[in-house]
Amino acid sequence: MLIKSDKLKGILERAYEGKAPTREECVYLLEFEETSMESSMIRAVSNDIIRRNSENSAIILGQIGVDITKCPGGCKFCTFGEDHTAMVEKRLTDEELRQKVKEFVQMGDLYGLYLMMMHDYELPVLLNAINISKELSPKTTQIWVNIGDTDLDTFKELKKAGVTGVYHVCRINEGVDTKLKPEDRIATMDNALEADLELYTCLEPIGPEHTPQMLVDNMFIGIERGIYQHAAMRRVAVPGSPLAKYGQISNLRLAQIVAVVGLASFMVPTMAYLGIHEPNELSYASGSNIITAESGCNPRDTNNDTAKGRGMDMNDCRKMLWECGFDYLRRGDESKIALTKEYVDQCFTNQSEN
Q: Signal peptide span per the entry (predicted)?
């Protein structure tokens, strides 16, 4: 089937030539209905380019929510917001953390492990969690943090402790749907980069009310800084959160958005992988090649251990990536593991026995 729009054809052909779409072109790409032929073409081209660039490889990340408190960030989409949370305060014990880390790393195919804290966090608690994670993880698994706004000196200390990278975002409607300042969020991203940490960011949390221009303005915050990973995440209508009344976008629309993020960012020199949250097959056929297993608390879940709620485990992740046609898993040192059905089945058997 021919692409009817010469403008769309030109954007996609230039992408194959190594030229990312401009901001204005990204807005144009996001204006198509997710069910349209044009959207299907956008998703197909992003998927093809990113799979070629990565040798059809994907990575598995793990995230452990270490503690639960009433968060002063007050995000209207998050289960922890201090003005609406019903969550009971909790912190993982060292033994609980050790068990969760072991479950993630025991097969040696976890690329990176996120340690997630609340916006206001206690540095000694985080450093302890980092030490435990490094002790139990193979050298091929990187240690990352997902934390609140942080200064340069603290990031330098985290790097000395063995942290490779930081997940941080300036969210859509930051300062409107949150109590946080956009300039503080962006300063934290810059602090991480100045501390020589890799920066992982995301276009999030996407709701039905957000316009293509809002999405593009947000996605380019990371692109213009030189990210190691970009991503897209839809907002989950968490029961009790103020923004739940707006509902959610479909996974098909999310797949279209992640495809545009991929096309806009694949030429960033440091860009390696493209994430999607929450994991879904449509997005893995649209350019995404990161999947995340989760345990402990989760801002999109009302269960204090998301492993018993929304979170996927390592076996779920391996199976979904295999079903979506990836040939390899990458470890944190970029070495490859052939992703076959036999490998997936063997991991399931080994983990069941342990």
A: none
